[in-house]
Amino acid sequence: MQALRKLATLAFVAAALAPVWAFAQQPVKIGFVMFLSGPAASPFGVPAKQSADFVVDELNAGKGPAPYGKAGFGGSKIEMVAIDEAGPTTSVVTEYRNLVQRSNVDLVIGYISSGSCLAIAPVAEELKKLTNFFDCGTPRIFEDASYKYVFRTSPTATMDSVGAALFVKEARKGIKSIAGLNQNYAWGQDSWGDFELSMKTLMPGIEVKTSQMPKLFAGQYNAEISALLGAGADVIHSSFWDGDLEALILQASPRGLMDKSMMVLTTGETAMHKLAAQIPDGTVLGARGPFGPYAPDNAYNRWFSKGYEARFQAPPNYASYQMAQAILGVKAAWEKAMAGNGGKRPTNEQVGAALEHLAFDGPGGHVRMAIGKGHQAIMETAYGMTKRAGGKLTMVNVKRYPAEMVNPPEGAKSADWIKGGFKK
Amino acid sequence: MDQVGPVLVDGVIYSAWLFIAAVGLTLVYGVMKILNVTHGSFYALGAYAGASLTGAWLARGYPPALSYAVLLGGALLVTLVFAPAIERGLLRFMYAKDEVVILLVTYALFLILEDTIKLIWGVNPYFVAEPYALLGSFEVGGLKYPTYNLILVGLALALAAGLAWVLHSTRVGKLLLAVIHDPEMSRALGVNVDRYYLVTFTLACFLAALGGSFTAPTVSVVPGLGVDVIVLSFAVVVIGGLGSLPGAALGAVIVGLVRSVSVHYMPQVELFVIYSVMALVLAFRPRGLFGLAEPRKI
Prior knowledge:
heterodimer; A: alpha/beta; Rossmann fold; 7-stranded mixed β-sheet; 5-stranded parallel β-sheet; 15 helices; 44% helix; 19% strand; elongated; B: mainly alpha; 12 helices; 72% helix; globular
């Protein structure tokens, strides 16, 4: 009798502890890489880290909205290892190797700088570690090469420029000339190049009055603003971000640059809240996709934006959305792979196979891994104009463009696709 | 051509900013023969102090008209906190060493101060727009310019005139000129060279901080603000001649106008036009336009 009772107690305890045990399986270690210092920290890196903190905590507690309700990744708790992307490219690569080989992470989500992404992609292939780029914009990654372990759950920067061109054509009648003010490095050059090409394809005969390319972080744009005022173009395109974007807004508004010309700020959403008082009405702001003010009113967005704002006292910006999307996408793939693996923990190869050509939903809306042989996401995009209403900055005249209209088709290079007239 | 007006105005504004940023650098080199890389950090410190103090001042509802005094006060504060400590605590022991060693020390200090700034103020950008917008605007050639830019120009002119007067018309200034020409002889003649070094370093850092502080209302103050300034200041100072104040002024004017012309007429070359001017000057006058001739000493 005693023995039976002991056995019964043991069995009861074991059964009670079973869920705890199941959860206390080996955690999923995810390496997160973004700028935590330097100029790209404040507009992109820190909001992304905060988003990761929020999403990981919510998922681990099983509070994700369906179908993300399972705790962690398929029941295994997520363990975050966050490192700083700052530093020269060689140290970024070294840190990645450390993350994979010394910290033994199961997968990596990160990278804001296109330079980092281009350098990391081949290393990820070499180390056979599933790596999801969440923010960097260069289309070159999947246009110039194919990868098995590298993915990107956010659309490329091509979408931003094409979307901007489409919006501008609709929103302002009788455009005859454009001008640009972009930072003189890969991001600025590519953004302006794509926009200029798109405008010339959509509206042949359009004149480019001037393209100003000041040094990155120059900070002083008086001369450039004078040149733009003198040129008097109908539309001015700028892909400035962070301090440069804020300096531009602070220096351009009092001089009336936005009065004569329609100003398009392709990453303007990040400055929207802080500089609400300084941005004149009618400025076109981009959020690199359907994020921030352009995010759809779905269950995911409600969960994400309310929870994020409650925790950090500031609304999430597009970098936050991209990070959330990156985590949810990988979770969906992980759990799909797990289901196909009889409930066992999937390998990187299995997760990769599940993530290829996957379609999933997040706070930004519907995401389809449709190009780059199923490794590159496409989404719709949206642009709108600012209007101050009751002391708050809102977006009006919002236009959405379906994914196929603003992203190149499978196998096409962005520049060729634009030049060829956006053929599907 | 109604572009000439705006080109000149832009050139003058940029030159004024360059002069304020660069004059401290040439002063330190002239007196102490040190290439002071920390110059950029003091510019950044001044900008952060000016932006955050003015922001706090305006947030408390104090009169905006006095925000300019707050900008000045901010620059003074950071200078007094950091400059004498650096000079007395560290640089003083390096004067006898090679110039390269001192350069490395100031570079190391620059890196330390960059991180100190991040420790104190974090990584978020600061901006304080009110002083910029407060004074309204004026028009040249059909283009609007905020009147605040005239403050920068006025400050540069006041600095130039003030320094010239101090150096040539006061006893202290003449002794400083003696120290510039020959520190050993000055020391032998009873001049307290160490004190002159301390004062010069503090003054130069204050000028850098002042430049940063008064530029702060026109930009967004971000980490890394000081790096750009050092590079440009070196270019200006090298063109004008290391150690020469009229050289710094002339260098600033040349660089400012050349850049303004290139932005308006040929923006593609804007990035390197400053350095091509520097290369050109150095090719024909390696010591810079007003470089001091240094007699060889045995």
